[in-house]
Amino acid sequence: MKLWHRLALAFSGLTTLAMLLAFTITLIVFKRAQERGLDEELFERAATEAAEVTLLGGRSLNIEQAPSDASSNLVQLVKYGALFSANGSLITHTVTFGDHTPSLAALGYFADKTLPFRGFDFAFGEQILRGVLVRVHADTPELLLLAAPRDDLDSDVLYLLRAMAVVFGAGVLASAGAGLWLGARLTRGID
Length: 191
What we know:
Elements: H1 3-55, E1 80-84, E2 90-93, E3 120-124, E4 127-135, E5 143-149, H2 151-186
Antiparallel strand pairs: 1-2, 1-5, 3-4, 4-5
């Protein structure tokens, strides 16, 4: 292999690796930021719903189900909610869960475990939901599950991934061309 080919390959390879690393880090940071934003909205809304559960006597949920035109992204999503007793039995749930409300054990929560401080994903039917668990009141062991579909979050990540794939492909071609040009230019006159 000629020297200028090796120089072009090295330049193109290093550039491609650098782009791949930068795009991977960007995608991971973007996805985590999106999840963190949804988690914050879910926790905020769960605190409001927990206060309403307390006002309603701790036995019923009054979660608005239909999407609305409010500015919050979470308000625009159909929400899923369930209220669990101290022993993990279901007290009540929203109609969106139907007869298939996941148990606390299915969500990975057991009585001796501390509540997760961040949201978690779980499968419900054919979709993935992002959920949070909160105590209804500090003095009571009842738990409130509030969840929303991940569809918007996942479509944003997919859109970014597609855009980065196009840029990555163009970058690989450009770095290969630049590497060939640079290798030929640097090795001119060298046998």
